C-alpha cells in the first residue's frame, strides 16, 4: 500500500482564512519533488504559489481553478507508489474525520467508505442513503447574509439547508461545516458532500517545436493549452486556430468565461458590458466590507504645513544621485518616527489578540489593474530617506506585476493611503486589518498659514487618521497626530 500525503491550503498571514485557486502547475500522474510548485492561490492580498513539502506522484487534484478553499483545505494528494481510488478516498475521509472543522473538504461522505476487512460483510448493516434535509432545516428567510464559511455555504446548498436554521460556532459566529453536521444529526439526517469535480488531463511536454500558425500559438498561450494536446488539421499539417479551440473545449478551458471576463449585450441601441469580479476584486470587496461592518472607526484630523518638508525634499534630491525622494517618502519616515514614540498605535488586532510591535512595517496603497493593493515596507524606522524611496518604488512596481511575497503583503503594523497626487483635499480611509489604524493623506495645497504672528502662504496638507476604537483610544490617536505634525513641520526632529 502506498504512503499518501496531502498538500493543503497554507495560511499566509494572521488574517487569511481562505484562498482561490488560480492555476495548477501539476497534473495527475506527474512526479514532484519537495519544494516543487503545485498551484497558484489568490488571496485578498496576493497571488502566491503553494509548494510541496514532500516528494511523490500526484494521485489526485482535489479542487479546480476558481474553487475557494479554507486554510487547511486539501489541494492535492501525493503517493510514493501506486494508489487506488479507494485508498485515496479512505485517506481523505480519515483525515477529514480527525481535522478541525472546516480544515478540509471531504471529497465524499464518510458513510460511503468501505467496511473494514476485519468485519464480516454479512454482519454489517448497509448504511441507509442520506436523507435529503426536507425538514425544518430547509425552511426560512433568505440566508445570503448569514455568516458562514465557503465550505459550509456550498454544502448547505447541496443539501437544501437554510443557514438561518443553523447556530454558528465558528470564528466570529460563522456557520462551519461541523455546525451543519450537528444540525443534520439533530433531525436524524446525514449531510451529503459535493461531488468532486473531474479534471481532464493535459500534456506538460515542450510544444515549442510543433508546427503551428502564429494565430493558433498566441491563442494557445492565452488559453493555457499545450499544443501537444491539439490535433493538426491545418494546411501542411500545422495546428490551426480551430484545433486549439477544440482542445480548449475538451479540457474545459472554454466552458465558461473566466472570472472578470467582460460580456457585452445590446439593449435599446446601447451596449452594456457585464463583468464579474475577479478573485482579487472579490477579496478586496470582502475585506473592506468586513472592516467597515465589524470595526468601530473613529477619526482624528489635522492640517500640516508641509513647507519645511518640501524644502527638505528639494535639498535631498539636489544631493542624491541614485534616488528621487517624494513627499510620500518623507511622510513614511515621519510616520515611523511618530510610531516609535506611540507604540499603542503600531499594532495589529485580529478580533481576539492584540499585538504591539517595536518594528514599524508600513503598508502603502498602490493602485493596480486588479484593484488597490497594500504592499508593506518593512522596518521603516531603520531606513534612510533614499532607502525608503528606492524600496517603495520597487514594492510598487512588483505590486503591479503580482510579484510580491506573502510577508510583503501581510505584516503591516500601520497603513497609509495617499490620494494627494490626484488633487484630493481630504478623505476617509477604511482600516486595513489587522492593522489598527490607517492614515489618509490629501494633497499639499497653498493656503494661508500663521508663522511667527504673520499671515503667509504655506503648503498645507490634510491628514486623517482612522483608528479601531476597540483597541485605540482617542487620546492615543491625538498624541500620534500631534507628534506626526511636529515632525513634518520640523523635519530636523527626525534626526534626533
Report a brief summary of the structure.
By secondary structure, the protein is an alpha+beta fold. It has eleven helices and 20 strands.
Notes on the structure:
With 496 residues, this protein is α+β, with helices and mostly antiparallel strands. It folds into four domains: 4-107, OB fold (Dihydrolipoamide Acetyltransferase, E2P) (Beta Barrel); 136-186, Dihydrolipoamide Transferase (Irregular), CATH 4.10.320.10; 214-250, E3-binding domain (Dihydrolipoamide Transferase); 296-495, Chloramphenicol Acetyltransferase, CATH 3.30.559. The protein has eleven helices and 20 strands. It has helices at 85-98, 150-159, 177-186, 214-223, 241-250, 279-294, 307-319, 327-341, 385-400, 407-410, 474-489, and strands spanning 4-8, 18-24, 31-32, 37-42, 47-51, 56-61, 68-70, 74-79, 262-267, 270-275, 297-305, 347-349, 354-356, 362-364, 366-368, 371-373, 376-377, 414-418, 437-451, 454-468. The strands form six sheets. A six-stranded mixed sheet has the order 11-20-19-18-14-17. Strands 1-8-6-3 form a four-stranded antiparallel sheet, covered by helices on one side. Strand 15 and strand 16 (371-373) form a beta hairpin. Helix 4 (214-223) packs parallel to helix 5, helix 8 crosses helix 9 and helix 8 crosses helix 11 (474-489). 36% of the residues are buried.
Amino acid at each position: 500500500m502506498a504512503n499518501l500525503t496531502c498538500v493543503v491550503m497554507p495560511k499566509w498571514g494572521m488574517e487569511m482564512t481562505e484562498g482561490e485557486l488560480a492555476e495548477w502547475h501539476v497534473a495527475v500522474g506527474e512526479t514532484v519533488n519537495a519544494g516543487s510548485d503545485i498551484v497558484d492561490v489568490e488571496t485578498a492580498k496576493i497571488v502566491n504559489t503553494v509548494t510541496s513539502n514532500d516528494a511523490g506522484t500526484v494521485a489526485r487534484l482535489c479542487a479546480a481553478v476558481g474553487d475557494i478553499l479554507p486554510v487547511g483545505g486539501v489541494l492535492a494528494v501525493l503517493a510514493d507508489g501506486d494508489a487506488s481510488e479507494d485508498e485515496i478516498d479512505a485517506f481523505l475521509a480519515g483525515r477529514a474525520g480527525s481535522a478541525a472543522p472546516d480544515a478540509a473538504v471531504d471529497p465524499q461522505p464518510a458513510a460511503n467508505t468501505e467496511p473494514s476487512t476485519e468485519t464480516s460483510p454479512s454482519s454489517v448493516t448497509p448504511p441507509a442513503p442520506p436523507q435529503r434535509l426536507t425538514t425544518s432545516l430547509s425552511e426560512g428567510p433568505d440566508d445570503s447574509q448569514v455568516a458562514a464559511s465557503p465550505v459550509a455555504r456550498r454544502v448547505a446548498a447541496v443539501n437544501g439547508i437554510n443557514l438561518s436554521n443553523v447556530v454558528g460556532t465558528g470564528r466570529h459566529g460563522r456557520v462551519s461545516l461541523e455546525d451543519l453536521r450537528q444540525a443534520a444529526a439533530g433531525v436524524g439526517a446525514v449531510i451529503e458532500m459535493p461531488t468532486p469535480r473531474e479534471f481532464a488531463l493535459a500534456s506538460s511536454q515542450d510544444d515549442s517545436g510543433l508546427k503551428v500558425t502564429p494565430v493558433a500559438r498566441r491563442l494557445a498561450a492565452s488559453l493555457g493549452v499545450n499544443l501537444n494536446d491539439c490535433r493538426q488539421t491545418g494546411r501542411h499539417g500545422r495546428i490551426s486556430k480551430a484545433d486549439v479551440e477544440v482542445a480548449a473545449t475538451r479540457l474545459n478551458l472554454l466552458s465558461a468565461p473566466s472570472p472578470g471576463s467582460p460580456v457585452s449585450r445590446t439593449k435599446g441601441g446601447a451596449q452594456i458590458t457585464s463583468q464579474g469580479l475577479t478573485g482579487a476584486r472579490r477579496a478586496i470587496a470582502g475585506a473592506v466590507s468586513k472592516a467597515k461592518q465589524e470595526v468601530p472607526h473613529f477619526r482624528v484630523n489635522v492640517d500640516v504645513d508641509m513647507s519645511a518638508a518640501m524644502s527638505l525634499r528639494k535639498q535631498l534630491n539636489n544631493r542624491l544621485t541614485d534616488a528621487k525622494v517624494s513627499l510620500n517618502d518623507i511622510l513614511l519616515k515621519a510616520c515611523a518616527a511618530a510610531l516609535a514614540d506611540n507604540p499603542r498605535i503600531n499594532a495589529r488586532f485580529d478580533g481576539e489578540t492584540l499585538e504591539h510591535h517595536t518594528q514599524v512595517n508600513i503598508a502603502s496603497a498602490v493602485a493596480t489593474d486588479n484593484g488597490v493593493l497594500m504592499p508593506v515596507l518593512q522596518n521603516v524606522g531603520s531606513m534612510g530617506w533614499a532607502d525608503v524611496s528606492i524600496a517603495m518604488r520597487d514594492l510598487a512596481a512588483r505590486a503591479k506585476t503580482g510579484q510580491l511575497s506573502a510577508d510583503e503583503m501581510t505584516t503591516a503594523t500601520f497603513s497609509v493611503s495617499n490620494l494627494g497626487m490626484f488633487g484630493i483635499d481630504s478623505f476617509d480611509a477604511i482600516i486595513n486589518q489587522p492593522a489598527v489604524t490607517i492614515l489618509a493623506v490629501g494633497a499639499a495645497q497653498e493656503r494661508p498659514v500663521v508663522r511667527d504672528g504673520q499671515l503667509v502662504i504655506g503648503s498645507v496638507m490634510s491628514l486623517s487618521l482612522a483608528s479601531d476604537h476597540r483597541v485605540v483610544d482617542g487620546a492615543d490617536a491625538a498624541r500620534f497626530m500631534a507628534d506626526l505634525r511636529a515632525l513634518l513641520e520640523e523635519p530636523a526632529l527626525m534626526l534626533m
